[in-house]
Automatic annotation (TrEMBL):
Gene: queG
UniProt keyword list: 4Fe-4S, Cobalamin, Cobalt, Cytoplasm, Iron, Iron-sulfur, Metal-binding, Oxidoreductase, Queuosine biosynthesis, tRNA processing
Sites where the protein binds [4Fe-4S] cluster 1: 192, 195, 198, 252
Cofactor(s) needed: cob(II)alamin; [4Fe-4S] cluster
Organism of provenance: Acidisoma cellulosilyticum
Source organism, top-level taxon: Bacteria
4Fe-4S ferredoxin-type domain ranges (all copies): 183-212
Assembly mode: Monomer.
Enzyme Commission number(s) from the entry: 1.17.99.6
Role: Catalyzes the conversion of epoxyqueuosine (oQ) to queuosine (Q), which is a hypermodified base found in the wobble positions of tRNA(Asp), tRNA(Asn), tRNA(His) and tRNA(Tyr).
The protein's name: Epoxyqueuosine reductase
Biological processes annotated in GO: tRNA queuosine(34) biosynthetic process
Length: 371
């Protein structure tokens, strides 16, 4: 039988060997404020089309509401910090920007497999005890970020995402619920201080106040969760973001301590770092599925994805892409066709951009000076 005081240390070692970069332990309980914040967001209707937020709220607010027997939570984090500048492709007007987390394999599959291995390890080290375990990655009614903060992995920043002193804003989260009574770690203190870079960086002003996000204004919500037409008031702000948005994460000063993630299956694929909008606009359903096989992008489907691509083309200022959106404006999918028609009008009316000159005709930084 493994001594009671050693099992947490063994779990940490095993978790790191499996590829997790952060591990902590928390009691299976949350402060009332966590559930209250969720209830407030839902009652205001800010969850939009994310109906799963409103469902099973009681289970989200209390781990024991989901599983009455749970005693402890093992919180795990895996870094997906990029090699270089996460926002570098925002300057490529004729290329699409895909959120860092979605530039390779679907993290749900990768992390869930590792969690199952770790859960089996926990069971094998329980000795004469006969514990039970359940594993979760993002899709269950689990409040991952508050639990991770209680387990000492980091704190919820002003953008509402978890921030780690070691890994910055780049952590995928997963949990193992167990009936074991494990020694909890100390909850992490908030280290945001007076910084508001994430708030100021948000293109759509979705962070309406420190620690308050209005999801229905968020580009990640609009390009991924939202099924209908993207409201026109946000289309220009999307720029060339065609799946998700990293702006509030990338500007966090704590990222200066982050090393590039070590899981090879999460490292960016070359063809997803700055894919040409022209190529993406020509994808049929089979081509879309083949291009994004194994990627999180695949789950939103070809039509919704090309809706985003069409808007990005409309923001590109490149009249050479006009035939692409004129063709998409005849697509059978009405929402995609409308986005493409909007993009076509925008390309016809926007001034043609010359190299090194912005829309107002002012030379941009780095433009050549003939003198």
């Amino acid at each position: 039988m493994t001594p009671r005081t050693d099992i947490e240390a063994e779990i940490r070692v095993k978790a790191q060997a499996l590829g997790f970069d952060a591990v902590g332990f928390a009691r299976a309980e949350l402060p009332p404020s966590a559930g209250a914040r969720l209830a407030e967001l839902v009652s205001a209707g800010h969850h939009g089309e994310m109906g799963w937020m409103a469902e099973r709220m009681a289970q989200r607010a209390d781990p024991r509401g989901l599983w009455p027997e749970v005693r402890s939570v093992i919180s795990l984090g895996m870094s997906y910090a990029p090699e270089g500048d996460a926002l570098a492709t925002l300057g490529h007007k004729t290329a699409g920007n895909i959120s860092v987390y979605a530039r390779n394999r679907d993290y749900h599959d990768i992390i869930k497999g590792k969690l199952k291995h770790l859960a089996q390890f926990v069971l094998s080290r329980a000795g004469e005890r006969t514990p039970q375990v359940k594993v979760f990655v993002d899709t269950a009614p689990v409040m991952e970020k508050p639990l991770a903060q209680q387990a000492g992995l980091g704190w919820q920043g002003k953008h509402t995402n978890l921030v780690s002193r070691k890994h910055g804003s780049w952590l995928f989260l997963g949990e193992i619920y167990t009936t074991l009574d494990l020694s909890p770690d100390s909850s992490h203190d908030d280290r945001c201080g007076s910084c508001r870079r994430c708030i100021d960086a948000c293109p759509t002003e979705a962070i309406t106040a420190p620690y308050t996000l209005q999801p229905t204004r968020c580009i990640s919500y609009l390009t991924i969760e939202h099924k209908g037409p993207i409201p026109e008031e946000f289309r220009e702000a999307l720029g060339n973001r065609i799946y998700g948005c990293d702006d509030c994460l990338a500007v966090c000063p704590w990222n200066r301590f982050a090393q590039a993630g070590r899981e090879a299956k999460l490292a960016a694929r070359a063809d997803l770092e700055a894919p040409a909008l022209r190529d993406l606009s020509r994808l049929d359903d089979a081509g879309f599925r083949a291009r994004f096989a194994g990627s999180p992008v695949k789950r939103i489907g070809r039509d919704r994805f090309l809706r985003n691509v069409a808007i990005a083309i409309g923001n590109s200022g490149d009249p050479a892409l006009l035939p692409e959106v004129e063709r998409l404006a005849k697509d059978p999918d009405a929402i995609l066709a409308e986005a493409a028609a909007w993009a076509a009008v925008r390309l016809r009316t926007m001034p043609k951009l010359l190299p090194g000159v912005d829309e107002a005709g002012v030379p941009t930084l780095g433009s050549a000076n003939p003198e």
